[in-house]
Amino acid sequence: MHAQTKQKLFLGLILFIITFMVLGFSVRELWFREDDLGTIINGLIRNWNDFIRVFSSDCRSFIVPVNYRRTEPNFISGFLRPVQNVFFTVIYYFWGFNPHAYYLVHVGLHALNAVLLFYVCSLFISISLSLLAGFLFAFYPNVSWLPWIGTMQNSLSTLFLLVSVLLFYMFLKRVERPKKWSALFFLFPAGTCYVLSLLSRENGLMIPVWLFLGVYLVYLPEDYAQKFKTSLGYTFIFFTANLKYVLIRMWAFGFGTLGRTYNNLFIRFPWLAQWLSFSDSTITKTEQSKQITDQVIDQASQNLITSVPSITSNTPPVHISWLDRLNIKICALSKYLLSWLGTLFELPASTLFEKILIYGLGVFFLFFFLIAYREHKKLLVWLTFGLCCGLWPGILAYPCSRYINLAYPFFIVMIVVGIYLLSRDTHKKYTKFLILCAWAISCLALVKGAYQNSYELHSVSRGAWEHNKRFENFFTSHTFGKKVKVILLGSPFVSDIQSIFQVGFHNLNMSVAFELFSTFAEKNSFGCTGDYQIRNVPSKFVKIPDGFRFISGDKEHCALWMQFSDHPIRFNLQNRAYEWTKEKYEINRWYESSMGKFQIHELLDDKYITDISFIFDPVWIDENTVFVTWDTQQGKYCLLSPLK
């Protein structure tokens, strides 16, 4: 074994141990977060049928209670993440529901990813810069999501993708040799790992194009004949793997109702409709309201719109000049760019100083990349495209470290390779200064990230542990038979509440039905912005014929929450699923629910229910049924009197 190889193995082991110890020992008390238990329990693979189900199901369907299901997924909107459940199954059969086992496996995967990035970088640049890249990936990005076991899909996707890239590099090193057929022993495993990455999470969907560009722009010499054909031949396995993944999704979900996906996008991102209406200079009152309430437009641009006099239904449409509309869009774009840079640099943007710092770092790195890669423009284009490949999940959702986890390796590689290229050209006066600044910023980011992640991991895990205490007293003070059926009427929102009850009562066959329209409003939970609390506030459930009536005793601080992620929902009886809606609910009118009907008697701001009646269909009630609710005064779960 070469001395350099031994050095890499030793440094890689040190990197793994430090990462594992710092992140692993930051967590003491720990419990599962939302979606975790539901994803684990209902995604366990016990036989071949379970294997088929896991590889053909939207993983979100694993967390719903028995009384309704999720909206039918389609080819685009479905969450296909089966590899995660393979890992969960293995962990479960060794350690059961020990949350520390799942967390430490997750930390181990993240540490392994840092080692792989270090090794990949060491193939091209110095050991010291490669080690910096590994430590930066380990600690610089926000990894406070590691205790959320359901996010293991992120680390798995990155793991298989890094292994795939490493195998592809080994293929390229051998494909030009006399016995080039041996290179296939690396190419086909590379394609397999890429498929596994997509089946963990589809973050790397655009990687085949990135690899093709890498071969075409960077790897093959300028005068190489038939570069396009050769590049495609080298990377065809990844395009084929992508096609296989698409076929798997088609088999799992079909094309479904694509229109529903587009409709949900416009409900969730109203600014899309605003940008698409750029050419229309005359807006209606409804459109004006959408612009005013658009969350991505800052206060200055809001003032521009709200300065227009209010209009009634009999007033002609308001005319806003194209210059004003352009100004609004520039303001929105500026704030959007700030949020993205803040996420990429892991810096908040709440104060003026922080905003200046973020824009300053953006300008510095732009200048740094242009100088460092001035003689390697194709390499810069290639790495920048890779960065975009890692950012796209966040573009579809919103800037978040967890969503753009794949973007950080590209950004880190751009920095360390830039330092490496500058270090080879030190005759310019400003080169050493740029190198010093880049090293200083990287080291500061590393120290800041290690400290902040340790603190946030402890805080997040502690919060999950405290959250579990909401259930512990109820589980220890009540005993039910194996055939019990629980109807949960009134609870702070918990997505996988059925699985939590199953684990708490050690009965994985327990049936738990939960009515979404009886979710207690809680500030900063699932879109609730009002000052609503779940303890030390009065409320009561009163028995009525065939059901219960909820009455709030503090309408400003205690109510039921009829929205999900800040969007109104309704129950679709035909699909037996809850879905987003734009319709407003009317007072004293009966509506369908997942277990019967409900009637709202009092409603605040079209969001908060302070008086509502629920009537249950008899099919949900038998001698084994118990009703459970959350006591908002004492802050604990308790039993309601049975209907029969």
Question: Brief description of this entry?
Answer:
Helix content is 53%, strand content 12%. It is an alpha+beta fold and 644 residues long.
What are its keywords?
17 strands, 6-stranded antiparallel beta sheet, 20 helices, alpha+beta, 12% strand, 644 residues, globular
Main beta sheet, described?
6 strands, antiparallel
| DSSP, total strands | 17
Strand content: 5-15%
Kindly, what is the distance between the CA atoms of the first and last residues, rounded to a whole number of angstroms?
A: 77 Å
- Tally of helical segments: 20
- Summarize the amount of helix as a percent range: 40-55%
Shape: globular
From the alpha carbons, calculate the radius of gyration and give it in angstroms: 27 Å
Structural class: alpha+beta
Average pLDDT, to the nearest integer? 85
> Ranges with pLDDT <50 over ≥5 residues?
277-313
Give a structural overview.
It is a single chain. Helix content is 53%, strand content 12%. The radius of gyration is 27 Å and the shape is globular. Strands 7, 8, 9, 13, 14 and 15 form a 6-stranded antiparallel beta sheet that branches. The chain has 644 residues and is α+β, with helices and mostly antiparallel strands. The longest helix is centred in the last third of the chain and has 49 residues, at 429-477. Helix 1 (3-24) runs parallel beside helix 6 and helix 7 (152-175) packs antiparallel against helix 8. It has helices spanning 3-24, 36-41, 48-54, 82-95, 99-122, 127-139, 152-175, 184-200, 207-219, 227-253, 258-268, 270-276, 285-293, 299-306, 322-345, 352-372, 377-396, 407-423, 429-477, 497-504; strands at residues 282-283, 318-319, 485-488, 491-492, 511-514, 519-520, 539-544, 547-552, 560-561, 563-564, 567-572, 577-580, 590-592, 596-604, 608-616, 625-631, 636-640.
